[in-house]
Amino acid sequence: NQKINMCGKYNIVPLVCLRSTSDLLPLDFGSLSNRPIIGFEDPQEIGGENASDMRKIIEFYDQVHLKFPNGVQFIYGGSVGFGNANSLWQREEIDGLLVGHHSLHPAELINIALV
Known about the structure:
Number of helices: 4
Shape: globular
Distance between the termini: 35 Å
Structural class: alpha/beta
Number of strands: 4
Mean pLDDT: 90
Largest sheet: 4 strands, parallel
Strand order of the largest sheet: 1-2-3-4
Strand content: 5-15%
């Protein structure tokens, strides 16, 4: 929360990456004048080839918006690749994607970005 408050002081939009809904409990975005970004990455999915089950992502999204009804931007990471980027982008709840190891390959990253 100290870092979030510092972001607010300098009008920086914080990107806070979380592993589970329990990570939401201590967060306080009260000092921010802009919408923060919350990223969700399930540690079990990082570095693999399969994203989290869509129900799990949407449940996390729902919990985020219950905690922060004034709105946040929501991005998903965790095994984001060309094979699943399109289905993730199709969800209105997801505002962006965190691309991990696939970003190390420029051609693959471009294909993901162009989905």
